[in-house]
C-alpha cells in the first residue's frame, strides 16, 4: 500500500507516521504539508506545499490510501474564513486530487457531532467536508469522529481542562461514550480502518473507533 498523508505534522499525523513506517503492508508514504515532519525514514517522502495552490501539487498526490489528519483551530487560523480554507477546502482539494489519480481508500479524521446542518460553525464545517468527500466516490471511505483527544504535549489550556472534567464525569459513570481518547489510539484506529478491505462508507463514532483498536495490527 502506498499511503498519502496530509496533516502529518499535527498531533494525529505525528502519531500515525511511525505506525505507517512500521506496517509491513505500507511500502511508501508521501506526506504533504507546509513543513516536513521531524521523522525521517526510507519509506517517507515529504512534500512542502502551499495549501491554497492545489494546481501546483495535485499531480503528486498519487497513492492507494489517503489519510486526512489536517485541522487547525480558530485561534491559530485567525478567522472562520481562514479556518474553512484549511479544514475544509485544503482537505477536499487533497481528497479530490488523490481520487482523480486513482486512490481507492480514504480515512478522514472528522469530529464528534459533525453535521452539515448544525447551527454551529465547527461541526457544520466538518459535516460539510464529510458530505463533499463522500460525493467523490471513494470505493472505501472511513470517517472517524473521535472524542476529545489526549495529546501529551498539548499547549491548549481549555483542552486540558476539558479532559480533566470528562475524566471526572466518566469516573462516576457519565458520558462514558465520550471519554477522552489518546491520540496514539486514534492513529492505530486510522491504520486499522485503512486496512479494512470491505467496500463502502463507514462512519465511526467514538465507540466505533475503540472497536477498530481491536483490529489494530
Instruction: Output the helix-strand order.
Output: EHEEEHHEHEEHEHEH
Number of domains: 1
The CA-CA distance between the termini, in Å, is 15 Å
User: Average pLDDT, to the nearest integer?
Assistant: 90
The CATH first-level class comes to Alpha Beta
Level-2 CATH architecture: 3-Layer(aba) Sandwich
Indicate the radius of gyration in whole angstroms.
16 Å
Strand order of the largest sheet: 3-2-1-4-5-6-9
Label the structural class. alpha/beta
- Measured by DSSP, the beta-strand proportion falls in 15-25%
Helical fraction equals 40-55%
CATH topology: Rossmann fold
Indicate the low-confidence ranges by residue numbers.
none
Protein name: Epimerase
Organism: Desulfobulbus oralis
InterPro entries: NAD(P)-bd_dom (IPR016040), NAD(P)-bd_dom_sf (IPR036291)
Domain NAD(P)-binding: 7-122
Care to describe what's here?
- The structure is a single chain.
- The chain is of the alpha/beta class and 217 residues long.
- It has a single domain, classed as Rossmann fold (3-Layer(aba) Sandwich).
- Helices cover 40% and strands 18% of the residues.
- Helix 1 packs across helix 6, helix 3 packs parallel to helix 4 and helix 6 crosses helix 7.
- The chain is globular.
- The mean pLDDT is 90.
Amino acid at each position: 500500500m502506498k499511503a498519502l498523508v496530509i496533516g502529518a505534522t499535527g498531533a494525529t499525523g505525528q502519531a500515525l507516521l511511525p505506525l505507517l513506517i512500521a506496517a509491513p503492508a505500507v511500502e511508501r508514504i508521501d506526506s504533504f504539508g507546509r513543513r516536513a515532519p521531524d521523522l525521517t525514514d526510507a519509506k517517507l517522502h515529504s512534500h512542502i506545499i502551499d495549501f491554497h495552490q492545489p494546481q501546483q501539487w495535485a499531480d503528486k498526490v498519487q497513492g492507494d490510501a489517503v489519510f486526512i489528519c489536517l485541522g487547525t483551530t480558530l485561534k491559530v487560523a485567525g478567522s472562520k474564513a481562514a479556518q474553512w480554507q484549511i479544514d475544509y477546502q485544503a482537505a477536499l482539494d487533497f481528497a479530490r486530487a488523490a481520487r482523480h489519480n486513482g486512490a481507492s481508500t480514504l480515512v478522514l479524521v472528522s469530529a464528534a457531532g459533525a453535521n452539515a446542518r448544525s447551527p454551529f460553525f465547527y461541526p457544520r464545517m466538518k459535516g460539510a467536508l464529510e458530505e463533499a468527500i463522500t460525493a467523490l466516490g471513494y470505493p472505501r471511505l472511513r470517517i472517524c469522529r473521535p472524542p476529545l483527544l489526549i495529546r501529551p504535549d498539548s499547549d491548549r489550556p481549555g483542552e486540558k481542562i476539558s479532559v480533566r472534567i470528562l475524566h471526572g464525569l466518566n469516573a462516576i459513570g457519565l458520558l462514558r461514550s465520550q471519554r477522552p481518547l489518546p491520540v496514539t489510539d486514534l492513529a492505530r484506529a486510522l491504520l486499522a480502518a485503512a486496512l479494512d478491505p470491505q467496500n463502502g462508507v463507514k462512519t465511526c463514532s467514538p465507540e466505533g473507533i475503540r472497536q477498530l483498536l481491536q483490529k489494530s495490527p
